[in-house]
Records
---
Amino acid sequence: MDYSIPIIDIGSLFGIRTAERDSADAALMRAAATTGFMVVTGYPPELPAGSAVRRDLLRLFQLPETETRKLWRQKFDPTHCNVYRGWFPLQKGFLTAKEGIDMGADVVHGSAVTRVDDPLREATPLPSAQALPGWRESVAAYYRAMEQVSQALMRAIARGLCLDEHFFDLSFDKGLSTLRLLRYPIRTDAEQTAQSDPDVWVTHQGVRYYVSGAPHVDSGFLTLLAQDGVSGLQARHRDGRWLDVPPIEDGLAVNFGKVLELWCGGRIKATEHRVIGADRERRSIPFFYEARADAEIQPLPRDDPSSFEPFFYGDYLWATTTQFVEFKGMAALRKPLRLPGTWVS
């Protein structure tokens, strides 16, 4: 049995149909239906998605706390109006130990995608141009690149499901996609955390590690993760063992969420994953490709129309997001477009 994470060259996905594109489609669908994880490489060199722009984005973590505090979400500073976007500081004593920022589509599309009556569509607080010269431009360029890569992957999935390749396009047009910058510092609270949660310590291949990102399955559609060369990301195989996801230079780790698994009738697998560490700081850049708030998710044309109850993606996203520790207690801050029936569990 193959226990490696597939590595797939997706360069051909950005052009017309060729034998190479058909082969890449097949490889992607094969990985999506089995491991639910892959590393993709070979996207067009003109896309600003490689290691150079990633290093530029991660300059954010050079800012002093006096600057990052200005970006804190309302949960961490009640004087701030930003609820969903912005900075979340490190919280000790939890299985997950990270800090970072969540940025929305307004970094590219501006006020055309923001609304004051929906926290999912609020504006993103950003560092000033004086604090990080040129950084905002790098963020916008990288966000656009991730949109293009994500769209190419979703079109390949549509072809793999025998749908029109543009079937998913409208649902994601100027959607709720999040660009997140993350820092996992070296854990200094592992022994203290272990008193309430012994799962903070794990053994992998005979070596003891601490957990810095709790095991979870992504809730949405598609995640593209840029790693900084530091290993630690792992995906759970179907037989329960943990597989290392290699931090390939300029590659993107790709995994799928529970909504896409549901939408595709289980033909694509949402896979549990975690982050472990051992005395080395880790930084990463996930991009969560999300549909519009008003995109209605319903069974595909080829599937049983009663297989699940249709729902608006924004309602589902808010209901699930507010279960995470950095959003706890905020569920009532958004009015759903439709009262929920049965959410994806």
---
Amino acid sequence: MTGLLLVGTAGWVLIGILVFIGMVFLALFAPAFNLWLQALAAHAGVGMLQLIGMRFRKVNSQMIVLARIQAVRSGLELGTEELESHYLAGGNPMLVVRALIAANRANIELTWKTGTAIDLAGRDILEAVQTSVNPKVIDCPNPAGGKTTVDAVAKDGIQVKAKARVTVRANIDRLVGGATEETIIARVGEGIVTTIGSAETYKAVLENPDNISSTVLAKGLDAGTAFEILSIDIADVDVGDNIGAKLQADQAEADKRRFQAEAEKRRAMAMARAQEMKALTQENRAKVVEAEAEIPRAMAEAFRSGNFGIMDYYRMKNIQADTSMRENIGGSGEKPQTPNK
């Protein structure tokens, strides 16, 4: 009886172990089995151990298998190791495979190494391939920046507002390290400003707007960028403000204020000088009064010393009277001051 009990216990333990192994098998192989079967049906075989290894390495096995299937069905030989390595590096294997397929269909030379490098650089490799096949149009300036026209001033001082559309095609070889669309927009805008600024009059720009596009296009603005400029078309040209007249008016206003300030300065200096002269006049008058006050003293001293007699005094009075009479006849109206006795 005891033996049967031991046999029954061992049986249950064995069953539990088998159930555990079955659960582990299902956990590991069940998700991978569907992917393995899908790859097998598409003739893009992926090993079961490889799928299990992807699970342990935390790789999106479904993306890897789908990318592998698309590559094989399109005639591209890409192994799971390459796809998995690019995924672990932070790339998007599915996007690169789709870009390779599009490039292959369009007879564009694009290798797996170049595609992964572009993808890891943060560029949209699929969009780049599509742009190589179907060029896109870039507005200059970019409306997202808040400006809708490139403003420049001709030599006659009239402002001209222009809007350009640049048709570009992606250059796959220069996607890594090449400048972006912002550089194209900045260079085209600079070329438009230079061309308008060198025009003699604004009328010349309005008459031949194609001169702007041809001049700008001849500058080779796509050098060092990830694009090739196919054409530059002037979409719109408008006349703006008379900047020259405004600058002249502003300069005249500034000159007016400067001259007013200088005139005010001179007026203030003149007023100060006038006050100084008034003070100097008062000072001189005081000296005259002081000198006149000394005359009676001098005359008295002359009388005492005998240098000035009574007849001299009367002759002086007669001279003063004659002088006063002549002044009254002449209409001066001023009377000489008589020294005090």
